[in-house]
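Dear Dr. L.,

I hope this message finds you well. Following up on our conversation about the binding site, I have prepared a predicted three-dimensional model of the protein together with flavin-adenine dinucleotide. For your records, I am including the exact sequence and ligand specification that went into the calculation, followed by the structure tokens. Please feel free to forward this to your student if that is useful.
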Amino acid sequence: MKPHAVIIGAGVLGCLSALSLTERGWRVTLVDQGQAGLESSWAGGGILFPLLPWNYSEPVNRLALAGMARHGALCDLLLEETGIDPQYWRCGMEILPPLNLEAALQWCKDHAFTCEERGSSLWLPEVAQARNPRLMQALKALVRLSGITLVEHSTMQPLAATQGRITRWTDTEGRCYEADVFVVTAGAWSKTLLGEHGKNLDMKPMRGQMLLYRTAPDTLDHIQYREDFYLIPRLDGHILAGSTVEDVGFDKSTTADTAAALAKKAIRVLPALAEASVVKHWSGLRPGSADNIPVIDRHPQFDNLYLNTGHFRYGVTMAPESAELLAALICGEPPGLDLTPYAYPQQ
Ligand SMILES: Cc1cc2nc3c(=O)[nH]c(=O)nc-3n(C[C@H](O)[C@H](O)[C@H](O)COP(=O)(O)OP(=O)(O)OC[C@H]3O[C@@H](n4cnc5c(N)ncnc54)[C@H](O)[C@@H]3O)c2cc1C
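The resulting structure of the complex is given below.
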């Protein structure tokens, strides 16, 4: 009999973790409280790069770069297997001043990352993007094609077991899930889901609001970044303008003030947007973690409970590598990266 894993949370981390375990011969049940892929993983910008990596620690960069390196092949596979195109696009990113050019150039040199000084801006031609809603639709389709049981609209209750081995976990309707291994990939809700066993997790939801413009397809052909604000062009001419990082709890509302502030920044970077129409304004809750370092580990109080969560601003970028690391850990294989920085915090 194949070993069985129940994975809670069907965002990008849950879907890819499920696929990585399936490839290793596991039977997987993937559970979500809503529809798969419609929370943070849907709401994000899809930039496959840690914005200003020289401002982050090496554990963040290592995981992000390793994830980024897997995305091209992943998106090809998704298109081939599902017919849904995640629109992977190596469009490059231009970082506009002010920026710490010295630190940026040093980082690029240290990481053999191609860059070019363009006056006071920095051009990073290797930066790619994927289109989140399409990426998540394709992942959901591949999950189904791979024989993974996807259960939607099943809200798992906070963990009731006390220690040792978890044999069952129930949802709010009383449905009971049994498995050899349980995995928490519940994004911003992971800490709540663990109940009192999540108290050591330094995680909280961090809201991000985003504006979507409709423009002619050739209006912008690369990502532009300026002072924690970015414009992301899509292949069909839509341009995303984002984002905010707000500590407002589980509040997913959008605000008119923020829309106005984002529009002002957008027009400053690309004046042509003054004439373009805003077609959508949304928000998502990132799984905020201390220093943007996720937890990829077994829970110290349970033999068969694992976490793959807390990827904060770069979950889409990191997910393909993070899922492989988790699956390797569960299966007792040597991990592709040192897992020490991603350990569950002991206190
Ligand atoms: C505005 C914005 C911009 C972003 N831009 C980028 C970017 O450019 N590049 C990048 O790499 N990252 C970006 N991110 C971050 C990225 O989106 C997240 O890090 C990533 O999506 C986290 O994925 P996840 O699977 O952990 O969480 P989610 O996608 O939120 O998935 C968690 C899932 O768990 C489910 N769940 C929760 N509780 C329960 C429960 N009790 N029972 C069952 N299911 C449950 C939820 O319904 C949800 O589907 C951005 C995020 C936002 C909001």
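In brief: The two ends are 37 Å apart (CA to CA).

With kind regards,
A. P.
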